[in-house]
Amino acid sequence: MDNFHFYSPTEFIFGKNTVIECGKYVKKYRGTKVLVHYGSGSAVRSGLIERVTKSLDLSGIEYVLLGGVKPNPRDTKVYEGIELCRRENIDFILSVGGGSCIDSSKAIAAGALYDGNFWDFYTGKAKIEKAVPVGTVLTIAAAGSEGSGASVITKEEGMLKRSTGSDLLRPKFSILDPELTETLSAYQTACGATDIMAHVFERYFTNTAEVEITDRLCEAVLLTMIKETPRVIADPHNYQARANIMWAGTVAHNDIVGVGRSQDWNSHAIEHELSGLYDCAHGAGLAVIMPAWMEYVYSHNVMRFAQMAVRIWGCEMNFVNPADTALNGIRRFRRFLFDIGMPINFEQLGAKEEDIPELVKKFGLGDGKTGGFVPLSTEDISNIYHIAAKTEI
Amino acid sequence: MDNFHFYSPTEFIFGKNTVIECGKYVKKYRGTKVLVHYGSGSAVRSGLIERVTKSLDLSGIEYVLLGGVKPNPRDTKVYEGIELCRRENIDFILSVGGGSCIDSSKAIAAGALYDGNFWDFYTGKAKIEKAVPVGTVLTIAAAGSEGSGASVITKEEGMLKRSTGSDLLRPKFSILDPELTETLSAYQTACGATDIMAHVFERYFTNTAEVEITDRLCEAVLLTMIKETPRVIADPHNYQARANIMWAGTVAHNDIVGVGRSQDWNSHAIEHELSGLYDCAHGAGLAVIMPAWMEYVYSHNVMRFAQMAVRIWGCEMNFVNPADTALNGIRRFRRFLFDIGMPINFEQLGAKEEDIPELVKKFGLGDGKTGGFVPLSTEDISNIYHIAAKTEI
């Protein structure tokens, strides 16, 4: 086990009818004038924004509204938010939405207190040194941004998708009401579930030996997702399954399932170019990329993939030919994704095989140095895109 | 799943040679004059206190020392610490030791800023409203106090063992260096492992349905303990096994494996009277009590015990007679405890069956209302003590 630092100070308020508490928690964290940041009109139409602002009113907190965050949140909206924060002397940002909205809120939070261009944090040119405190009211179980210090933003010009991270961006509190997720479509729900599982797999495939506790915690989240996701796809109003998935999504990404070892994250990076170029859902892109990545790298550590197959997918261990077990586990993963309605190849995703050279070029990281499990060259990345392009069940 | 609140703001610094960082973290949390609180002379003899004070010196932090915390930490030492804190204007408490030392530190932290008697917090007479910040350098993997808001203190007069809890008692930071635990005896190590497993079981046996994520996280910690504990008993210098156990101990008790449902805690309460009366190790007492409690209550929910047997102990499910599987799981648990060197009955623990009426009387809680899984009457508690008294492998 490697040395590590683990810090997850976010206060989680979980369950039915918890939205009403947001005013109380903004007050606890000394917010007096709040930017309420949200995404699509559905947050308004469903009455959620009204519930939020009513709670703020009851706590005597002023606020301004900024909606319009898109999936794959854009830098343009971040600039708008930063300007608004400065103009209105905002001292707290309340994010009402899913990962895109929270990531946009975090970018605004860091950018509002920075003299330069906030994009510097996403190119590595600058380090976040202060940020406006952020709280969240989560509406989609997926990104885990409600409990993480990470943020992913897409630069509209050229659709470049880049990420940053800092403990300063960790939300002060996150309100998680599973009922808010009941209106999501089966497709959105499945995209979220895929993202959650991918967050765990990025941490599961490691070169660090002897981290049994982290392995087992990874497996705990994955087994939960395998049980609960089909139940929600079958019945969107299954509160219990929604609740399990929502909390699993948070646990999957506050790094409790990743400490003490190297992590990979190549699948995420490879996928980002897909959702950057085609503006598809991140989870759908991961469903196409991650099993292809697994097939491409599994021989690097056959026994680790066999462990996944046996412990997570319930495969029988083939003691004569462990590679057979490993591949069987990968097949089961892809089949699971297909069964919950995810695309499994480029065509189903709306991507084109002839764009692969462009995708690889934009990736810009295929220098054989990225990826904590198997570092990939540009050729490797191209090969993975090609596997992903043509896969069939 | 029930609504819940989860908050674990402690900053964890984990791994080899991390003790040297304690000065930096005390400074980060604005400590300027520190009470260094520790237990036995071994912390001095091993040079650990010197390493700690050297780190404080390097950060320019003043300190006073207070050693002598005993296992089952006493109120008398707490009073001494409170007086010292007030006299010396202490603004941070650094606890260097195991759960007893941390619990004593927390009691001092709350008591130093309270006008009344700190024991009020342990009788329920008063609620903790402020506390001196606490940091820890952990030397035993067991109590989980390094990541929890709980504290257990024994009142010397009458050896009454009582607990309290508050988010205000959660350590600001905890330094976890598994190498510090390598000098523990096999017996101390096994006691710690038993305590860790008991913390999970208290949360595993619940009447709340449909909390798969929490079930799976419980199982993750238990499976880790079952793998790693015998390795450490066989080789006290197995760093990897020590590291897995140390982190499992923290995860077992910051409540990430307990959210969203009722918990039991009767075994802990029943055990507290044993270690209160005989001053035995808490873990050893749990090894005697917890399997007895399981045997006594398993028929309340046979399938839950069968789940434990299958998922944790690897038993075959007996589909014709699930009770057989349930009992088999309990037997495996007791056998595991025996194999790692724990006592399994009163005689091995140094307790006496004829004291049971006194134990039950002191318990004072057997009103049929305590225990989130199965509420127990005084008669039930007496019966459990009798099972525990006479058990054989």
Describe the secondary structure blueprint for this structure.
Two copies of one chain form a homodimer.
Chain A: E1 4-14, H1 22-28, E2 33-38, H2 42-45, H3 48-58, E3 62-66, H4 75-88, E4 92-97, H5 99-112, H6 120-123, E5 134-138, E6 150-155, E7 160-165, E8 173-176, H7 186-204, H8 212-234, H9 239-251, H10 266-278, H11 282-297, H12 302-312, H13 322-339, H14 346-349, H15 356-363, H16 378-390
Parallel strand pairs in A: 1-8, 2-3, 2-4, 4-5, 5-8
Antiparallel strand pairs in A: 6-7
Helix pairs in contact in A: 1-3, 4-5, 7-8, 7-9, 7-11, 8-9, 10-11, 10-15, 11-13, 11-16, 12-13, 15-16
Tell me about this structure.
The structure is a homodimer of 393-residue chains. Chain A has 2 domains: 11-180, Rossmann fold (3-Layer(aba) Sandwich), CATH 3.40.50.1970; 185-390, Dehydroquinate synthase-like - alpha domain (Dehydroquinate synthase-like, alpha domain, Up-down Bundle). The first copy, chain A, starts with a strand and ends with a helix. Chain A is built from 16 helices and 8 strands. In chain A, the strands form 2 sheets. A 6-stranded parallel beta sheet of chain A has the order 1-8-5-4-2-3, with helices on both faces. A two-stranded antiparallel sheet of chain A has the order 6-7. Chain A has 393 residues and is of the alpha/beta class. The first copy, chain A, is 49% helix and 12% strand. In chain A, helix 4 packs across helix 5 (99-112) and helix 10 (266-278) crosses helix 15. The first copy, chain A, has helices spanning 22-28, 42-45, 48-58, 75-88, 99-112, 120-123, 186-204, 212-234, 239-251, 266-278, 282-297, 302-312, 322-339, 346-349, 356-363, 378-390; strands spanning 4-14, 33-38, 62-66, 92-97, 134-138, 150-155, 160-165, 173-176.
